[in-house]
Design goal:
Elements (H helix, E strand, L loop, with lengths): L1 E3 L3 E7 L6 E7 L19 E8 L12 E8 L4
Antiparallel strand pairs: 1-2, 2-3, 4-5
Amino acid sequence: MDAQIGEYVITARKDRNSENWCLGALTNGEARNFDLALSFLDSKKTHEASVYEDGNGANFITNPETYKIHKIKVKSSD
């Protein structure tokens, strides 16, 4: 969906065998926030997103395995 070499990449992919989507973003060592349109989702449904994000004290060199997972409700208009 979007990328800048050496900075970040954002991608989305629909599962071949279900209605599930996977959306991922990866950045270099710089913290970032992204605004992403979810217009590819079914507009007649509310969806549950499992969000994986860096945990407290995350660092790709010294503490790469700390993360948080939470679930949120999203719509295609979000």
